[in-house]
Design brief:
Helix 4 packs parallel to helix 6. The chain has a single domain (about 20-165), classed as 3-Layer(aba) Sandwich (Glutaredoxin), CATH 3.40.30.10. The strands form three sheets. The protein has a four-stranded mixed β-sheet. A two-stranded antiparallel sheet has the order 3-4. The protein has a two-stranded antiparallel sheet with strand order 5-6. The protein has seven helices and eight strands, in the order ααβααβββββαββαα. The chain is globular. The protein has about 170 residues and is of the alpha+beta class. The protein has helices spanning about 1-20, 25-35, 50-60, 65-75, 105-110, 140-150, 160-165; strands spanning about 40-45, 75-80, 85-90, 90-95, 95, 105, 120-125, 130-135.
Length: about 170
C-alpha cells in the first residue's frame, strides 16, 4: 500500500511539475498563426485594476488542465481593454479612446459588442469570426467545459445543456 501511495504521489508531482503555463499571444500574432495552423482564438479581455481578472488568471487560466487545453486547441490572447497602443486587425486600426478617468480601447468595445465588463472572454473561430463573448469570472471547471464545447466544435451540433450531459470535466473544484 505504501508503494502504491508513493507511486501515485510521484505521478501527481510529475504532472504538476511538467504542467506548462498558458502561452499568451498578441491578437496580431494569433491571427498570423491561425493562417498557418488554423485554430480557434480565445481572447482574455481584462484591465489592470480588475480584481476578478486577476482571480481568473490565478484560479482558472493557471489550472494545469486549462492551460494545456488552451495551448493545444487555441491561440490564447491577453488583451488589455485600456491599452494605449493602436492595434490593426484585418486592415482596420483600433485606437484607445480617452473617456472619463480611464478610457477604453476600440478593439475591446468591438469584441464585447460595446458591453465593457471585465473579465470577459471572447472566442473566435479559425477565420476570426465571432463565436461567443462571455462576461464575468468563470471557475476552472466551467471554463474547461466551455473550451471543450467550443474547441471540439460541439457548439455547431449540440445545445449547451445536451453537451453537459455527455462531457465530464476532469477539473474538480
Amino acid at each position: 500500500m505504501k508503494k502504491l501511495c508513493l507511486l501515485f504521489s510521484i505521478i501527481i508531482i510529475s504532472f504538476v511539475s511538467i504542467a506548462q503555463p498558458v502561452k499568451w499571444y498578441s491578437i496580431e500574432e494569433a491571427l498570423e498563426k491561425t493562417k498557418k495552423e488554423p485554430r480557434k482564438i480565445m481572447i482574455d479581455v481584462y484591465t489592470s485594476w480588475c480584481k476578478w481578472c486577476k482571480v481568473m488568471d490565478t484560479a482558472t487560466f493557471n489550472h494545469p488542465v486549462i492551460a494545456a487545453r488552451l495551448n493545444e486547441k487555441y491561440y490564447p490572447v491577453k488583451f488589455n481593454a485600456e491599452q494605449k497602443e493602436d492595434v490593426t486587425v484585418n486592415g482596420k486600426t483600433y485606437k484607445f479612446i480617452a473617456a472619463g478617468s480611464r478610457g477604453y480601447h476600440e478593439l475591446a468595445a468591438a469584441l464585447l459588442n460595446g458591453n465593457l465588463g471585465y473579465p470577459s472572454v471572447v472566442f473566435l473561430d479559425e477565420n476570426a469570426n465571432m463565436i461567443q463573448p462571455l462576461q464575468g469570472f468563470i471557475r476552472a471547471r466551467q471554463f474547461d467545459q466551455i473550451i471543450n464545447f467550443i474547441g471540439g466544435d460541439h457548439y455547431k451540433t449540440q445545445k449547451w445543456e445536451e453537451f453537459l450531459t455527455t462531457y465530464i470535466s476532469p477539473v474538480k473544484e
